[in-house]
User: Fold these one by one.
Assistant:
Number 1:
Amino acid sequence: QSALTQPASVSGSPGQSITISCTGTSSDIGGYNYVSWYQQHPGNAPKLMIYDVSNRPSGVSNRFSGSKSGNTASLTISGLQAEDEADYYCSSYGSSSSSFVFGTGTKVTVL
Amino acid sequence: QVQLVQSGAEVKKPGASVNVSCKASGYTFISHGMSWVRQAPGQGPEWMGWISAYKGKTTYAPKLRGRLTLTTDTSTTTAYMELRSLTSDDTAVYYCARGTITFGPGTIFDYWGQGTLVTVSS
């Protein structure tokens, strides 16, 4: 199962909105409504930000939202803040290997 | 609060095995599963496998099948990961991550341990 494809970097100014894409295939993202997104600050463990495409766990800011169309999922961060600067990874189940696959990762920079 | 506390860093020689533990607290251990995820330096996460804390049922990533064994001890609410025949490609930070009680497309990783660095070097 190949890694899901994400842009290497995305940047924005404080207060702006940015969107990170995550492209897979019909065997993973396109086949299930179960995409998750994780935020990872340097030296820390990943933190779940979105699950089941668009659901936020308790405690996660509503500035984070998720969506999916076909084989591509997206994470949008609105009202960008300095604390949002981190690496972001998408994840989906892949039927071809009956296992989970993560994205290549996107570094978000707040200008 | 949910906490997953992992054992300390390990340095191993090629061909050796490594065991990493993950002590869970703050929730009903047998009501959830546990996944293991590793992350090589500068790389994205890689899912390794999942175990049901209740029945010990396991699912492994195809590339690690045969070298990886996941177990749990319900009496101490601890999950264990053993990886054998180590090579330099296994150098990574290893995480335990709480998951749903059953394994499938809807499994999410909602709480993570702090990570354990495993270095494989001669």
Number 2:
Amino acid sequence: GEDVEQSLFLSVREGDSSVINCTYTDSSSTYLYWYKQEPGAGLQLLTYIFSNMDMKQDQRLTVLLNKKDKHLSLRIADTQTGDSAIYFCAGYGGATNKLIFGTGTLLAVQP
Amino acid sequence: SQTIHQWPATLVQPVGSPLSLECTVEGTSNPNLYWYRQAAGRGLQLLFYSVGIGQISSEVPQNLSASRPQDRQFILSSKKLLLSDSGFYLCAKRGGIQETQYFGPGTRLLVL
């Protein structure tokens, strides 16, 4: 089945760019997603990318997809303290009704 | 609308007591609904999903059960809680573009 992996922790300074990485195993994933979870809250859909795209930009967010290496990244430009949260990538796990989530990356933004 | 309501927001229960968590959703009819648990740490574990009224698929053997008595209502239950049932329970629905899942605000459960 699908397996999705992320690094556990990333620390950046306010104003810098953040890059959060994710690798997945199931090449049949149609869509790949990034979610943000602030402390004590549910998951908020940030952005998604369709599998036939290489890049998607949405304001400060840039998603890059390397299908050959099965690698997905989320770049946050001009990172703010309000971006501090856990970020999950997720992919659709093949012939199931289920999204498979990574373990989450905790982004800490230092003022 | 992708609005999802979860009730209660926080719950403290003794070991051995019953549990009922409720999730109600707005928007299109007959959505796919999901229950996840997020234990200390961070990973999301899919517990149950439902493709329609009365249709429940269980992902892992456990002390919990789920029911879907109405199209937009999904309930997570237990007859006797264990300490290991503590966690953050998230309800989600599938809507919008294909497999996109939208999440509710969650219920934090502490079993003592």
Number 3:
Amino acid sequence: SQQGEEDPQALSIQEGENATMNCSYKTSINNLQWYRQNSGRGLVHLILIRSNEREKHSGRLRVTLDTSKKSSSLLITASRAADTASYFCATDDTGGFKTIFGAGTRLFVKA
Amino acid sequence: DAGVIQSPRHEVTEMGQEVTLRCKPISGHNSLFWYRQTMMRGLELLIYFNNNVPIDDSGMPEDRFSAKMPNASFSTLKIQPSEPRDSAVYFCASRGTSGGGNGYTFGSGTRLTVV
């Protein structure tokens, strides 16, 4: 089964609200990454959190990682219409080479 | 840095024709990956290279698919013969340290339509 399952599959919020997306995975990992994909474009790397880290911030993004629960969350604060995109989590297995992407969460931010 | 460059951006071809997708990774990145994305199957890893050597091609769907990386600055993904079910967006991505603390840099993708 697929590593890196995002939840929810789709999320619609008003501009200014916070958006929270979750990711669960199944095996031991070296790190977990979050990506954004705008329609018709490639994925853009947002943030990487290592397995020994619990929380990481980048601008309006906050990522948490709970290795005991094999889960991560991505929080986007004060969302903007430009944040409308699909968001993917991806995990590097402990072997180091292979990265598995989840199915993504589609976020729609209404202006 | 121009990023990962893929060509063509769009390709429409007839069933049975050969299709070649091209990728130029970021200079200095030693790992290169080919992914395919469809609505039904999401993002699938097809093959990846480390230092120009194919490491894992278990994601390549059939013998019709082949990939090469003759040097550190160029890779191709070839489909011969192409079929309508190959229609998808194909992404190339490179990475600075395989399995290390860096994320992927993706190209803009090639949208392939096989009619």
Number 4:
Amino acid sequence: QVQLVQSGAEVKKPGASVKVSCKASGYTFTGYFLHWVRQAPGQGLEWLGWINPNSGGTKYAQKWQGRVSLTRDTSTRTAYMELTSLKSDDTALYYCARDLGTGDLSFDYWGQGTLVTVSS
Amino acid sequence: QSALAQPASMSGSPGQSITISCTGSSSDVGGYDFVSWYQHHPGEAPKLIIYEVTHRPSGVSNRFSGSKSGNTASLTISGLQAEDEADYYCTSYILGGRVVFGGGTKLTVL
């Protein structure tokens, strides 16, 4: 069965960076885009970007261009989301989600979420 | 890219039908038949319930249906049940292969 397992909670200081991992299993890792979505406390869902695990190609929401970096390691079937120059309002639950694969950029399987807390 | 507009909250009684709207522009909702809907129970991962405006993934109840007219997409939940109480989000494909979420709608089943 398809599973996306994310790394554990992180606590970071303002200005630092965080790297969250998302390990995939149960399907062909290189066959589906992986997206990253976040939810800040009391806020809605926000799309950050996607990575094509096959080519390594990426696309980011314009707001996050330059501060988010999506990478992958095909040998370990793991995708990564790195967020730099952290601010307190980056405190959020970060999800990875698999693309449905129909071309409409919908997400059919989700990781359990990784809580990133930014605090001095 | 601004978030798609959804009502912040809606409510309904068991057995009723409700329709949640998702309004964008010709650059997103109106420009592509690529609108999805997600159900999000607090503490759980979101769940895809509608994709490509009207399609239901396998295993999703046929009480959920989607439609679109112009720049507004809609999610209808018929025969409301207590378990439908959740947050609902729409998304749309936007130019350049990006995605935009709606602001979310908190559904209360009275």
